Amino acid sequence: MGAGHAHRLYRHGHSPVHALPPHTKLAAAFLFVVVVVSTPRTAMWSFALYAVLLAHVTHLARVPAALLLGRLLIEVPFVAFAVLMPFVAEGERVQVLGLSLSVSGLWGAWNVLAKGTLGVAASVLLAATTELRALVLGLQRLKLPPVLVQIASFMIRYGEVITDEMRRMRIARASRGFEARGVRHWGVLAKSAGALFIRSYERGERVHLAMVSRGYSPAATRRGGAPGTMPVIDEVTASRAQWSYALALPCAALVICLLGWFL
């Protein structure tokens, strides 16, 4: 990988969670989500305990609760979908506050809200404590297919290229007094979109040349190695203690899940 890529979701810190190697956090978050999804929806107390576990991780990571709750707003569309389920689902009906609601729809809405919220919260914590570059290195360390890792790496690089060009062009338009107020300004925006494509393409070529100068080997020229990879400068390893610390979350969640099935 090349230079680091800071992203808006990342919150710089020196907590024990920040210090964990990225591949251990990726594995822990993935296993935690799998356990949560595997939990029976009728074991409502299990999801409360999962929330307590995530709250403890949030405290260890020194991530403000307000920040976590604010970023959970990304699941609002799913909340709207869950709210509609009791009204549109079929089956046995029950009266709640004078409304006829489907029992299966109520359970489905609860299932989506509980498991979706916990999954999003785990993802937000992962993003808040791990830089993008470290996440890609973690995927590489977990032996994901090199093509997928390469796609993720390019998505990060060129996503930042396009975002930066959009910001520059927006500032340039604002400095000239432009403000989109109606249909008559669509022509200017369309021309800006065309200019954005050309500028992004040109900057993308420069990014590729910079990658080649730093050791990137395209598939056509690389010999005896994985196609299209950057030389790994920082070899990320994890000790047994770090793995144990990271996997404490999914292991505790697994115990709760098993109790939910058998109690």
N-C termini distance: 48 Å
What is the strand arrangement across the widest sheet? 1-2
- Contiguous uncertain segments of 5+ residues: 1-5, 220-226
Largest sheet: 2 strands, antiparallel
Mean pLDDT: 85
Binned, the helix content reads 55-70%
Shape descriptor reads globular
Beta-strand content: under 5%
In short:
This protein has helices at residues 16-19, 22-38, 44-61, 65-71, 76-88, 103-129, 132-141, 146-175, 186-213, 240-246, 248-262; strands at 93-96, 99-102. With 263 residues, the protein is mostly helical.
Question: Mind explaining what this structure looks like?
Answer:
- The chain is mainly alpha-helical.
- It is built from eleven helices and two strands; from the N terminus they run αααααββαααααα.
- The chain has a two-stranded antiparallel ribbon.
- Helix 5 runs antiparallel to helix 6 and helix 8 (146-175) packs across helix 9.
- The longest helix has 30 residues, at 146-175.
- It is globular and about 60 Å long.
Write the layout of secondary structure elements.
Layout: H1 16-19, H2 22-38, H3 44-61, H4 65-71, H5 76-88, E1 93-96, E2 99-102, H6 103-129, H7 132-141, H8 146-175, H9 186-213, H10 240-246, H11 248-262
Antiparallel strand pairs: 1-2
Helix pairs in contact: 2-6, 2-7, 2-11, 3-6, 3-11, 5-6, 7-8, 8-9
Keywords:
263 residues; two-stranded antiparallel sheet; globular; disordered N terminus
